[in-house]
Design a protein that fits this description.
- Helix 2 packs antiparallel against helix 5.
- The chain folds into two domains: about 140 residues, 3-Layer(aba) Sandwich (Rossmann fold); about 110 residues, no CATH class.
- The radius of gyration is 19 Å and the shape is globular.
- It has a six-stranded parallel β-sheet, with helices on both faces.
- It has eleven helices and six strands.
- The protein is α/β, with parallel strands linked by helices.
Length: about 260
């Protein structure tokens, strides 16, 4: 084994925390302005985001490269040559407003001005919160001294680059950075793993995939014959229908113990 391939979201950076806190801040501000009970708007907006996202003309493409509804709520879609990304660049402002409009409507609120404000506030709140796990840099520094590293992340190019380059020094550890929106397919497709191997001249037995997502990271690696380490920080039980990872770890610090000295 010579190369370690890392996932980005919720593996190296804490994307869930960033998004959750940004949504809390945006919804609480709206609830206070409207005099609503705190906590009602957030689930309504999340449900709305998934519903409106699935109705988009370019949804099949976005789902294929594994862009999520919540990512579409703050992405600019201003990078990438795919026609679907260019289409979404124009559709994004309307999409964001539609999500908040529908979410508020479920609570009996009709306020175009507030809808427009919230559609802009959430992206701003999300951009204030680039969280990285405390052990990320420590582990990358130790591993990069012994092994080549690669980054493989799903998502739209502009947003994944913003997440990566928005944290000073994080990209420096990765000679190769592969983003699904630049390849045209995402994990768990074997094609994107094969693209990574071709890029670095690797064979499956030379790679270890490290990621938090059983469906994208672990299943994709398994389909390609690549060993995998499932980062299970919260101690979840492995679902019966899930692909079994080669290794299971609770911290990035556990990776080095899996590798030959």
């Amino acid at each position: 084994m010579t190369t370690i391939i890392f996932d980005l979201d919720n593996t190296l950076i804490w994307d869930e925390k960033s998004t959750d806190e940004a949504l809390d801040a945006t919804c609480e501000a709206a609830e206070q302005a409207l005099g609503l009970q705190l906590g009602l708007l957030k689930p309504s907006v999340i449900q709305s985001a998934h519903a409106v996202f699935s109705e988009l003309e370019c949804y099949p493409y976005l789902a294929n490269i594994e862009v999520t509804a919540m990512e579409a709520m703050w992405a600019r879609f201003d990078d990438g040559a795919a026609p679907e990304l260019q289409l979404m660049r124009e559709a994004a402002p309307v999409f964001r407003k539609s999500v908040w409009e529908r979410g508020l409507k479920e609570l009996g609120v009709h306020d175009e001005g507030l809808t427009a404000t919230l559609a802009e506030q959430f992206p701003a709140e999300r951009r204030k919160r680039p969280y990285v796990y405390e052990e990320t840099f420590e582990v990358l520094a130790a591993l990069s001294a012994k092994y080549p590293l690669m980054l493989l992340t799903n998502g739209t190019p502009d947003l994944q680059k913003e997440k990566l380059y928005g944290i000073s020094g994080l990209s420096d550890y990765f000679p190769h950075i592969v983003i699904s929106g630049e390849v045209g397919c995402g994990k768990p497709s074997p094609q994107i793993f094969e693209h990574c191997m071709n890029l670095a001249g690797l064979k499956p037995e030379q790679c270890l995939m490290v990621g938090d997502n059983l469906f994208t990271d672990i299943l994709g690696a398994s389909r390609t014959g690549i060993a995998s380490a499932w980062l299970n920080r919260s101690g979840q039980l492995l679902p019966n229908d899930a692909t079994r990872p080669t290794f299971e770890i609770q911290s990035l610090r556990d990776i080095e113990a899996l590798l030959p000295l």
